[in-house]
Design brief:
One of its GO terms (biological process) is nitrate assimilation. By secondary structure, the chain is mainly β. About 0% of the residues lie in helices and about 40% in strands. The chain has one domain: 3-layer Sandwich (Rieske Iron-sulfur Protein), CATH 2.102.10. It binds FE2/S2 (inorganic) cluster. The site of FE2/S2 (inorganic) cluster has 9 residues, from loops.
Length: about 110
């Protein structure tokens, strides 16, 4: 039996997120950064670096990671985990693209 209660919410069109950039959405759980990679994949994580809370949405996307603008930790967008040797994890959220529209489960 599933206890899943959250539903997919429409955020914006995929084109509204800059390529290799992000868009921030405010949710009950805090600010969520939705990233768009060069392959038009999208990922959503808390807009809060696991190091000292830097705004990941202002970082640079490369491949499937984003570099934090404050002290350059690299965070994997798929898992929210810092790339070694750094250790930490920011929360990830389910996000998908359907018919060119970005949907988020937060
Ligand atoms: S706050 Fe992100 S690397 Fe320090």
């Amino acid at each position: 039996m599933s206890t899943e209660t959250s539903t997919w919410a429409h955020v914006c069109a995929l084109e509204d997120i800059p390529l290799l950039g992000s868009r921030v959405v405010t949710a009950d759980s805090g600010d969520i950064a939705i990233f768009r990679t060069d392959g038009d994949r999208v990922f959503a994580v808390h807009d809060k670096c696991p190091h000292k809370g830097g705004p990941l949405s202002q970082g640079i996307v490369h491949g499937d990671t984003v570099t934090c603008p404050l002290h350059s930790w690299k965070i994997r967008l798929e898992s929210g985990e810092a790339v070694a040797p750094d250790v930490g994890c920011t929360r990830g959220f389910d996000v998908k693209v359907e018919n060119g529209q970005v949907l988020l489960k937060a």
